[in-house]
Structure formats: structure tokens, C-alpha cells
Predict the structure.
Amino acid sequence: MQPPPPQPVAPSESTSAGTPTEGSSVRIGALVPLTRPGWAEAGRHLLAGLELAVGEVNGAGGIAGRPLELVVRDTAADPGKAAAAVDELAGLGVAALAGEYHSVVARAVAARADVLGVPFLCSSAVLDALTEQPTSWVARLAPAQSHGWRIYADFLLGAGHSRIAVAAEPSVYWASGAGILRDRLAPHGGSVLELDMRALTPAAVCDELVGHGATALLLLVGFPEPAVSIVEAVRRDRRLSEILIGAPAGQPEFTEWVTRSGADGAGVPFLRYLPERPSPLGARVERVLRDGLGREPSFVAFEGYDTVTVLADVLRTQGADRARIAAAWPGVDVEGTRGRIRFSRVPGIGVWQWSWAPVQVVERDPADPDRFRVLHSG
């Protein structure tokens, strides 16, 4: 049974069970993938952004004089583990939940948060159907998959690619992505051939690409494997010297892609959610994140920072009462690192959505894999 949808009420501090008491810290439950099979590097970047923003909030006086505290739980890309963590964090009295990178895990978090009546601000997962039905408890910063992947399809068409192959593994996320690409390309005469990686070796993928005359191969598979082996096989096949390899889900954003793929991993277009030019806030946060991470921060780190920025703003005006926090989503109006953040109801999406974060199609420069080149913006 679901709790009733949150209703706006006047701000005040609540001392009921599950809510921080006067003088205690205000707790936010942070859900991030920090161990395999989760994408641990993405999790570290997400956590770095969350922690930086929490430190700045506390340096400026906290939430009405109370420190903001992250209670971190590793999801390891496991939906069951994440759902159990939501139960634990709810019992610990967190005011809200934040984070998560993997869409299938974020779905589990959103579903459990909705049942328990705990506000959840999803930082980085993009799957449109984040919940099975509309909910007032969940909001999201990342652009929906349908929005970003349509922009990616437009990039493919603009670059002259209409015969697209996708190397795919079973997943609601990958299946959704393939469907978005097919729907966007079909009206323009494009086609999408799905290659089932449960049945094909990387060498067999190359044969299929040649046989079908595909001009682009998109990786809708896990990393490092089978993605790395597929890239290596295609790059080594002289028959495929002109084919584009793409990874719309964003794997090449992270340094592990370069470490694993080397020069083969350059020139692989992917989606990232950054503006073409950073704002003063974005530039400052980028410098601090770079110092902390020891490398260029990914867009995921900015999503983490923006998550806490939004939650801190809501907590300052609404207090730590969960129902008031969730009821405040439609009134959010906050300057984030990548633009002004406001939530609305987007058709086909059951959560409060920032529409939209900036979207870019980017690749690592083959001449300098540490440098990114923007190919398309939407």
C-alpha cells in the first residue's frame, strides 16, 4: 500500500520517528555504486560531487544551523541490495535519498522510496520509466533516456548514418535505448539491426556488420566486457575500417575506458550532460572536483553536486519533514552547475523531471585521447 501523495504544508521542524530531532544532523541517504559489478568509477565521481556540495553547505552554516550529513550505501549495481539499503536508510531517519547511476538500480530505489514515502532525488539514471506509475516522491536531474538518445540518433543521421547495428545484451535499459533509436531513425529511412551478444562472439559481430552493410555499431553492452573485446575486434577488421563505433550510454567518459581500450577507445561518440561553456559556478566546482579526484571530473560528478544543491535549498525552506520535501519539488528554482534547475511533469515520465540538462555528443580525440571533442549538442 502506498502512502498518500504529499501535500504542501507550512515549514516547521518535525520530531516524529524517522526525522532528525532538534540539534542533530540532517541526514541524506546517498546510494552509489562503489564496487563491482557496478561502475565504481562513476560511483566515485558521483560521491565526490555529493560530498563537495555537503562540505560547502556545512561551511555556510548547514541547514538552519544543523550540519548536513551523507549516509552512504554501496549499491554495487544490485537492485535488491539497493532496495534493502532504502529500507535501512528510512529506518535511520534520513530526510531524503539521493544518487544512483545505474538505471535498473534507480528503478528499485524509486519503487521502494515511493512505497515508504521517502523523497528520492535521482542524480544520474536516465531510464524513462523510473517508476511503474506516477509518484510525487521522486524527482530526477538526469535527462530522460528518450530525450538524450533521440539527440544521439539525430547526430547519427546528420553524420550520414542510417544503417545502424547495435550489439545488445538483455536489459530493460538497453532494450529501451534500442527502441528509441529505431523510432527516431525509421521516419528518415534508417534501420536498427540488433545483434544478440548472448549468441555472438566479437568476431561474429564483425561478420554480421559486413553482411548487413552497417555503417555504425553502437555498444549496448556491459563494460569492460564484452565492450572492450568488441571494440578491439572491429578496429582490427580491415573490412570495417570506415565503420563508426558509438557508445551512447557514456562509457568513454571515464578514464577506465582509456585504460582498458587504449587508442582503440578514441573516436567513440557518447552522450554526456554538460554545457558547451561552463558557468562561473560550474567552472569553480570543476576546479575543486579536479583537485579532489586528481583528474577531469565527469558529468556524473556535477550531477552529484547539483543533487545536494537542490536538496539543501529544499531543506532550508521546508525542514527535514519528508512529506514537505516531496511536496516542494514543483517549487524548486535553483542555480546548478549546468543551468537553472526546475522540475516539471513531462509526458510519459512518472517523476518530477528537470527538463532538461544540457546534452552533448562527445568523443575522445584520436590524436589525444585525454581531450574531448564536442560533435553535436541538443
